[in-house]
Design brief:
The complex is a heterodimer of chains A (about 600) and B (about 220). With about 600 residues, chain A is an alpha+beta fold. Chain A has five helices and 31 strands. In chain A, the strands form seven sheets. In chain A, strands 14, 15, 16, 17, 18, 19, 20, 21 and 22 form a nine-stranded antiparallel β-sheet that branches. In chain A, strands 5-3-2-31 form a four-stranded antiparallel β-sheet, with no helix packed on it. The longest helix of chain A has 18 residues, at about 45-65. The termini of chain B are far apart. The chains are: A alpha+beta (about 600), B mainly alpha (about 220). The interface between A and B is large, with 78 and 77 residues.
């Protein structure tokens, strides 16, 4: 069994790790005879481990000595608790508001909620003098201040839960799902308490590259790249996670997702695996470039990855449920995964003028695309973009007809496409940035009926598909104004709201998020934007799903800590809400 | 005295590694009177140890009292998610653990805001001072310095006598992960204790040197 998450330099160290783990474990529960025998022999031979074993036992004694300092609860604890139980009973007997089947409780204690809410009052009062929030944890709306605008102002929205995680320095990831069913109009921020959380699993992902961690559509798997830990760098793993609110356990039976490929859990007994059992390695020796994404049905995973040693650029990889590992489906070392379109992959590749001399060592490691304009760097190699659709089920590839289409993203109804229309630029022929062009919205030609163009064998061939036009309709409208070095675009499930994250600097995770709304009748962009016009500050990962857009605001905004921000909508009515501030938040899909 | 409760054989699936009882499928109908009787019995039996656990986690007696109260209210609200009464103790620890972590997380947030200060007023209460004195040894300081989940694992295993499976359930992780966290916790504690002892030693040396200087000067 591989144990990818423990830092382990060699076999000898692994042996000492095992001894340490067993020394610790036998203070908790009895070891079996084999383990006990092995540990005894090892301790006889290893002075350092014996010393540690003795120290563990001594510390245990020391800890247990704390029992001699009894801690007595306050005498009025029962009186207070009894009153709180009465209050809870009274509340429980009232008809519960909100959607059926949804837990009405708060993800944090009453007092904590009160604390956070007090904080919101202070911030609200500071930012908007004369305007105080009127919510209280627990649901009832009570006026707090004399100048409060009367009446409920919240907008009810029916949104998809937001999968996110809090990452602890010790490598544990607390997965949680934020449920938003009320948002506040711009005129009354904080009109309701922060959204409730639904706790998921906690998993240990030591050494995981945060930007690569992605949860499956069924919330039952995480995929991630391990970037630290000797012997584990450059490996991509899938690890099962418990369902929302459920245990972190290896699934014993396959579910409707790549979980089916998970081998039966091996016995983790002899060694201290800090991870859930059942993880599988799907690639090694590579680093993910851009994002990893599951197909909508969860049956496939796609990503682009480059050799860990940086010797060449990325290729497109696809992992199918049940297969032993991910497979590279291109070999040009210049292919970048963009998005899923149904169960087909949209990807982009670069053709470059090879005669241009590489050699500028100052290569950016920006994932995917980044950078436009020459910025005076000189000696840039210009690249031309081309994009294609790849169907992993049939192993067929369809080139888009139009050139200079980079990282296209198509809505689920196959009506619109957002992409970088322009060139690319590189200083070394390996790492590419945006060149001259602009980020645009265009109509989408799906080609043959059923959205399926005629297909060819899995070799790139731009000349042999004269018949159906597949790709942008050549009727592009600029999406954002201003300088663009990096971007990500995603449509909502209705296919008429497009979230675009843009960064002005290469490789930055801070950027600005825009939401553009398309008039479904005309296909034109509406001039007004639900979010502030220059876009709101946002970290790179955002999530757009049923009736909501979620992102994490960077810390330092107006002196605030980072928080999960949600724009929810009901038709054309938009409102916003944010979670309690927190550090190390990451949206997982 | 604390006693071990559940055995592996009777452990319900939902508690094996479940991080939270909130949102769990119902295993029995929620009945107000039954829930109240159940929680009162639970309180009578376990409130002392739950309070002590929260005090040790948070180092604040008043806050621990509030959170103990919260934990029992949560137990009351989610009484229907407990499959077997014999697992109630570990289930209660699970709730208390989550409450403690939520509070610690909130505290980190509130610390970022200039307005905060002590929520109980500027002057620490007598109870708080007594608590600080009680937690002022090198072991307590070392415990306070290690990561929260590791601290929780050590307290639950060594002071509250949770078994490996109960520990996993209370912490919301797999049994294997719980053991690993505990191993890391022992390593962290060992290092933190060494640091504390070093600090204490150098403070003593400094004090001795000062007395020596004063003695020489006074002569």
């Amino acid at each position: 069994m591989t144990l990818p998450f423990r830092r382990r330099h060699n076999d000898a160290e692994a042996t000492h790790d095992r001894a340490r783990a067993l020394s610790s474990r036998r203070l908790l529960e009895s070891l079996d005879a084999d383990e006990e025998g092995w540990l005894t022999r090892h301790l006889d031979a290893c002075t350092e481990c014996r010393r540690e074993d003795e120290a563990f036992a001594a510390d245990q004694e020391l800890l247990r000595s704390l029992r001699e300092k009894p801690i007595e609860p306050p005498r009025d604890l029962w009186a207070k608790t009894s009153a709180a139980l009465d209050a809870a009973a009274a509340k429980r007997s009232q008809p519960a508001p909100g959607r059926a089947g949804r837990q009405a409780g708060w993800g944090f204690p009453v007092r904590a909620a009160a604390g956070v809410f007090a904080l919101l009052v202070v911030i609200g009062a500071a930012v908007l003098p004369g305007l105080l929030p009127n919510g209280q944890p627990g649901g009832s709306q009570v006026a707090v201040g004399p100048s409060l605008a009367p009446g409920p102002t919240a907008i009810n929205v029916d949104t998809a839960a937001i999968p996110a995680a809090r990452v602890s320095p010790d490598g544990s990831w607390d997965i949680f799902f934020t449920e938003v069913n009320k948002v506040c109009p711009g005129s009354t921020p904080e009109c309701v308490p922060p959204p409730s959380e639904h706790q998921g699993s906690t998993v240990d992902l030591l050494g995981a590259k945060a930007s690569s961690v992605t949860i499956s559509p069924h919330n039952d798997q995480l995929v991630f790249e391990s970037e630290s830990g000797a012997g584990n760098e450059g490996k991509i793993y899938i690890v099962p996670v418990g369902p929302a609110g459920g245990p972190t356990q290896a699934p014993s039976t396959p579910t409707a997702s790549p979980t089916g490929s998970t081998p039966p859990s091996e016995s983790p007994e002899p060694t201290p695996a800090a991870t859930p059992v059942g993880q599988i390695e799907i690639a090694s020796g590579v680093t993910v470039v851009g994002e990893v994404a599951y197909s909508p049905d969860g049956q496939f995973l796609a990503f682009s990855a480059a050799p860990k040693d940086g010797s060449s650029g990325p290729d497109l990889y696809v992992y199918a449920a049940g297969n032993p590992g991910a497979v590279a489906v291109t070999s040009d070392h210049r292919t970048y995964f963009s998005a899923w379109l149904g169960n087909r992959v949209l990807a982009s590749h670069i053709t470059a003028d090879e005669s241009a001399a590489p050699g500028n060592p100052k290569a950016s490691k920006a994932p995917g695309a980044s950078g436009n304009g020459n910025n005076g760097q000189g000696q840039a190699i210009e690249g031309r973009a081309g994009s294609f659709l790849f169907d992993p089920a049939t192993d067929t590839r369809t080139e888009l007809t139009q050139p200079d289409v980079w990282m296209p993203v198509v809505d689920t109804n196959s009506r619109f496409v957002a992409y970088w229309s322009g060139t690319l630029r590189s200083s070394d022929g390996v790492t590419w940035q945006l060149g001259d062009g602009q980020l645009v919205l265009d109509g989408w030609n799906a080609g043959a009926p059923e959205g399926r163009a005629s297909t060819e064998p899995a070799t790139p061939d731009a000349n042999a598909s004269p018949e159906p036009v597949v790709g942008p309709a050549a009727n592009a409208t600029p999406l954002v104004t201003g300088h663009v070095e990096d971007f990500r675009a995603k449509f909502d499930p209705d296919g008429i709201r497009l979230a675009v994250w843009v960064s002005e600097r290469v490789g930055e995770i801070d950027g600005r998020l825009h939401l553009r709304v398309i008039d479904p009748a005309t296909g034109a962009l509406r001039p007004d934007e639900p979010l502030d016009a220059p876009g709101v500050p946002a970290l790179r990962r955002f999530s757009i799903d049923e009736n909501r857009l979620a992102w994490v605001s960077p810390s330092g905004q107006d002196g605030h800590e980072s928080a999960l921000q949600v724009l929810g909508w009901s038709g054309d009515t938009f409102g916003q809400i944010h979670s309690e501030p927190a550090t190390n938040l990451l949206i997982l899909r | 005295m604390l006693e071990r409760s559940a055995t592996a054989a009777t452990w319900p699936a939902q508690l094996r590694a479940a991080p939270s009882v909130v949102g769990r499928s119902m295993s029995r109908a929620w009945d107000q009177d039954e829930a109240r009787v159940f929680v009162e019995a639970l309180f009578a039996k376990h409130h002392g140890e739950i309070y002590a656990y929260l005090v040790r986690m948070l180092r604040d007696g008043e806050l621990a009292a509030d959170l103990t109260q919260d934990a029992f209210v949560k137990a009351y609200r989610n009484y229907d998610t407990l499959e077997k009464d014999e697992n109630a103790r570990a289930w209660l620890y699970q709730i208390a653990h989550r409450v403690a972590l939520d509070e610690l997380r909130r505290r980190k947030i509130v610390r970022m805001v200039p307005w905060t200060g002590e929520s109980h007023g500027a002057a620490p209460s007598a109870e708080r001072l007594a608590m600080d004195l009680r937690l002022s040894g090198p072991l307590e300081r070392a415990l306070a310095k290690i990561p929260e989940r590791q601290r929780a694992a050590l307290l639950l295993a060594e002071l509250h006598d949770l078994t490996g499976l109960e520990l996993a359930a209370a912490m919301g992780v797999s049994h294997v992960a719980a053991r690993a966290i505990l191993t890391r916790a022992r390593e962290s504690l060992r290092r933190a204790l060494a640091t504390e002892k070093e600090l204490e030693h150098s403070a003593e040396q400094e004090r001795d040197a000062m007395f020596a200087r004063e003695a020489r000067g006074g002569r």
